[in-house]
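Exam prep: given the inputs below (a chain plus nicotinamide-adenine-dinucleotide), describe the expected output before reading on.
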Amino acid sequence: MSLAGKTALVTGGARGIGLGIAERLAADGAKIALVDLNPDPLAEAASRFAPEKVITIAADVTDRQQIINAIDQTAERLGGFDIMVNNAGIAQVQPIAEITEVEMDRVFAVNVKGVLWGIQAAAARFKRDGTRGKIISAASIAAHEGFPMLGAYCSTKFAVRALTQVAAKEFAADGITVNAYCPGVVGTDMWTEIDARFAELTGAEKGATFDKFVGSIALGRAQTPQDVASLVSYLAGPDSDYMTGQSILIDGGMVYR
Ligand code: NAD
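Solution:
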């Protein structure tokens, strides 16, 4: 129970990796604020937690003020705020020659601006409260290597790595650490969407793109949200107090740095 007495906010917490992270941090002893776009999936996700350990907040990470409000609500309703997990993200599959301005803006709004607003708002609240907080964001293998058809998405995840390094340096003096996790191929709804889009663009069979990517994993299986959550648990807890500015690969052996 290394997180007993702590409170964590997880964006994109209604499903997939975010929900897996929230469940793990709760098992570690933290109280949880689940933040996502819509109340119904949030309520469904919250039913998996002890009622006194969870709150839900419908908010859009692309809106800076909504994230500031979500953090304030978390601190007030759960009695503290110690860990920010900027997990919400969306995929974008398009050959580089065909990426439109609208598509580029949409994926940047969620994956880059959403993370930036989360970092800003969390750091401001930590400083105000004198909390030596932890900021943890979702990057990806796509933050370390470019993958064909994923140009817009990869560029957002490289940007998360950059923001992580800069924020780590700027907030180190306040005792705030800033790190990111870089999963590989996790079998969530996001990958169902990526696979369907590859099928549409390349004529591949449904499931074939997912299988091809999984086939390149040294450990021989797709990743689960729990595999990601174990790293986030470490980054949220005291064992990582001397780590900051890192974007750590956890991918079963796909990209080696
Ligand atoms: P997912 O699509 O299954 O879940 C994402 C959640 O984020 C959804 O509940 C969605 O409603 C929420 N969300 C989307 N836009 C939002 C917004 N504007 N405001 C608030 N919430 C919003 O995705 P996932 O696979 O669980 O991925 C989670 C994170 O991990 C993402 O940042 C993703 O880029 C990253 N990632 C995923 C994989 C993978 O293989 N699935 C690999 C590497 C990195």
